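## Example record

The block below lists the input lines for one assembly entry, exactly as stored, with component labels intact.
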Amino acid sequence: MSGVAYLAARYLARHKLVSGVLVAALALVVFLPAGLRVLVRHSAEALRARAIATPLVVGAPGSPVDLVLASLYFESGAPQPVPFSEVQHIDETGLAEAVPLHVRFRTGGKAIVGTTLAYFRQRELRVASGRLPAVLGECVVGASAARDLGVRPGDTLVSSPETVFDLAGVYPLRMRVTGILAPAGGPDDAAVFVDVKTAWIIQGLVHGHSDLAGPGSDAGVLAREEGRITANASVVEYNEITPENLDSFHFHGDPGAYPLTAVLAFPPEARSRALLMGRYEGSEARQILRPGGVIDELLATVFAVEKSVVAAIGLVAVATLAVGALVFVLSARLRRREFATLVKIGAPRGTVAALLGAEIALVTGAALLVAGGLVFVAARFAPLLLRSALAS
Amino acid sequence: MGVGAVVLLCGALLVSLACSGGEAPPPDAESTGGRLQVFAVNEPLRYFAERIGGDAVEVHFPAPAGVDPAHWSPDPDTVASYQGADLILLNGAGYAGWVTRATLPRSALVDTTGAVRDRLLARSDGVTHQHGPSGEHTHGAKAFTTWLDPTLASAQAAAVADAFASRRPELADRFARDRAALEADLLDLDARFAEAATALDGAPLIFSHPVYDYLVRRYDLDARSLHWEPDQPPAAREWRRLETIVRRHPARLLVWEAEPLADTVRRAAELGLESVVFAPCGNRCEGDWLDAMRSNAERLAAAAPSEP
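Predicted structure tokens for the full assembly:
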């Protein structure tokens, strides 16, 4: 190491606090835009992958963003419902496999997703332990949701009321956990899956109650005419489905009118997808979306926001550099006697400038190293850290 | 785009960050050994599937012997076995209500009476009830012993053949040929039932159970129904009701789903009613389902009163 570099390094080491602050400030100025870019690109890639894996989403008219986010990530406000008959309608076209989604209720903060077995096949979800739901009232839990909720097959989960003051609303349903899904690395890990009919039970559309026609049922009957029974308010509606009361659960009205959040459509090839989209062209009652397109539009907005944020960070960087320069200038003034001593003991001309330059280079180099390390950490470990954060 | 949407997207971005890798093999309903795995909910459909599918299908009918599959509910493990089926043959008309309470692969479900829904009959013994704000409703509103009308059974067989052909298009001709043979047998059965009905010559009948609606409609039978079980002695109140019915509806035949108790046969005879078995064969019956149906026709014809 040359004498100048040695002196610069010793000086910086002697003034650890100032040097550290300078390195940290410069490192942050470099890391913030670079780290933001890495995070956004990484997230966008994952977001787009989930969207591309979902060819089409059919729902009621409204915000495409809400519909896609609710369907793919079980987030966002509940879009307007679409009737279950839409699933039958898509099936009848023979152009795609229709998968219903009912995303409205939660348990322990985790989304309860009502769907059919086709969802697990289309999403390639595998059961790590136990089995998939077989009858009403059973649920299978995503890997991180199971960890957070502390449940195993055989345990139970209770659905949450929609609001704290939902006294007249739906009753919570106790659901039996039949299986835990293997980690899939997506929103499915944080969800609880039930048969869509179980979701309708939570909503109060399908229910079971004590026998009104059998012996000993008179206490619950208000009026009994030929072929017609009117029950009173004492009739017990079950809030847990057991082998004993399972057979009493029944639908009211036309199941085709029951609500869904959305219908996922999985066409076998591009031609079927185009034909199915054509069927909905001009429809005012439904909208059909390619999630990839919706997400791309959203990402364009995110990238625009990112540019604004980076521009703002640029201004902060200029200010930081100015402050850094000021620190060096003030430092040089304070060190005037030190530099004079160097000259007196025979240091060549230009040594002082070289010394200050070396100090600036060392600080900048250290800052770049720290920033590079942070970017690497963000790129490598951020998904894991964020997954833990989300899980908690 | 609003700020809210951007915030939502940021949330979704965070969620999507959790995406990486993942394990794949899906729950699988593929057939094993190249044979279609077919599950049926009753004996007629099991029989149709075996006749039409032959060795190209492996037919499962898990309902235990001695129970009525219409009212049987499989345990969750049995439902899980249904989940692995390539095809699940449903009778439709609300038959096997457990199907609506089970999680089954929609793509495997075949409603064999879906194409003849307009020919289904409303149940004569449905009870409407009302509780809470959800209004009146009736459980099990359709009569479901559809195969007692062989023309409906033929439509169900056609639905089975179509479902097989959709899964194994290369065997469609073979399925069509075997279905045609089955259809010929069902038409022959229709003729035998019609002969039995002709032999009855409009004589009034009493059925021990309200499961013969389609037989009654198809052959224009003059019948009333009780709600008696062949293996249980009727209560005194039920005998009084029968006496009342016989006074208004002078039947000479009491038709049972299975062999009734000897004492019940004797007491019915005292009322002038000869007991005859017409087994719907919703579950496994002795021998072949078609033979069992032919035996039903023969017994009914043989029991026809010699004079009205």
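The longest strand of chain A covers residues 97-107. Chain A has two domains: 3-46+298-391, 56-205+252-289.
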